[in-house]
């Protein structure tokens, strides 16, 4: 089957991508690891002892980064609709975050522990219809924000991937109602042509 132009473009970028090669060298499962590393270097979200949830965790690069930092006194809880190979000291549940049963199972896993941090790199399967894809993406973001509001300790932080579009400003407003400060981050490892941006909510009210 002949590849589409966009598929060929992605393949060419992937093969020649500095971050892809760096991930292989450093033992990370995906280039996305460096997005979290850069943001964490700047904002110090993950520290030894941090207890956090990683939403949309597969294939696991963010959980890898987090687990290497939190140490024995911290904990990483991860969830994704896709399977994820085990990572030492990371508790993982496979399931659809949009389903109440899966969410309840994940909350049970926390065992009453309030979280210091929620990180979400969730994104829907892309259909190619931008309006539909944006709506699906922001629905996941809204669910992640609600989870963060309910499960974070007071003063906790929330990092979420969003795509700039018509829902961006209303979502930003919603985050400002939950957190004392909201800032944006565009890591160097994000592809230049991508509309993705990371919003960081600091200090849950």
Automatic annotation (TrEMBL):
Q: Which residues form the Ribosomal RNA methyltransferase FtsJ domain?
A: 28-204
Q: Which residues bind S-adenosyl-L-methionine?
A: 60, 62, 80, 96, 121
Broad EC category: transferase
Which residues does UniProt mark as catalytic? 161 (proton acceptor)
Indicate where this protein resides in the cell.
Cytoplasm
| Annotated Pfam families | FtsJ
Catalysed reaction equations from the record = uridine(2552) in 23S rRNA + S-adenosyl-L-methionine = 2'-O-methyluridine(2552) in 23S rRNA + S-adenosyl-L-homocysteine + H(+)
| Keyword Transferase in record | yes
Gene3D superfamilies linked to this entry: Vaccinia Virus protein VP39 (3.40.50.150)
Q: Which GO terms describe its cellular component?
A: cytoplasm
Matching HAMAP family: RNA_methyltr_E
Family membership noted in the UniProt record: Belongs to the class I-like SAM-binding methyltransferase superfamily. RNA methyltransferase RlmE family.
Q: What is this protein called?
A: Ribosomal RNA large subunit methyltransferase E
